[in-house]
Amino acid sequence: MLMKSAMNISMEYDGGIALFDPEVFCNYLESINLIDGNIFELFIKNKKVGDRAIADGVIIPIYPVDEDDYIFVNLNIENIDCKWEFEYDGFPLRIESGILVATDIFSLMSWEHEFFRSYKENYKKRSRVNDMIDLVPGMYSVGISGGISDSKKIYGLQFGIVEELPRLGQAIDSDSFDFNI
After folding, report:
1. Residues 45, 48, 53, CA angle at the centre, nearest 5°?
2. Short-list 158, 150, 147, 127, CA closest to 60
3. Mean predicted lDDT score pLDDT of the chain
4. Is the per-residue pLDDT at 173 higher than 80?
5. Residue 125 burial (CB < 10 Å; 0-12/13-18/19+)?
6. What sign does the CA torsion over 72, 12, 86, 102 have?
């Protein structure tokens, strides 16, 4: 079976991008009794909920990100000739469904739980602000690089299989990273 190893995202607004396995993310939201509304606001207002989601490998927030088109590439599968502007390592991620979704942060502000719960089945109905790649189920330490290749903004993703999720620290300060390319 051919694995999808690149995602194309068209950001409609400045903001950010979230990476997650839709099965893991939906299960997490169900466990805290939140399946609709503004998920992003909850993560901002209740830092413990957002920090736990990041630490448990449920979601990786990537911001700030300017309005533009981006390509996310699984560097474990594809070689990209790119001038990397930054590289960050050690983001925890759990994959159970066999896919990783990238979507703009605004999708979290008007969350469509059933759409994302059945993302593979709904893939043809998706908008340009989200896409997916195939990824073998497991726990990962994710490295994220950003750069430009052939005038295109690229995020390179490296997935290291781990037996235990990496720890980002007690209080996760997502604001300490700058993901702008």
Report:
1. 105
2. 158
3. 91
4. no
5. exposed
6. negative
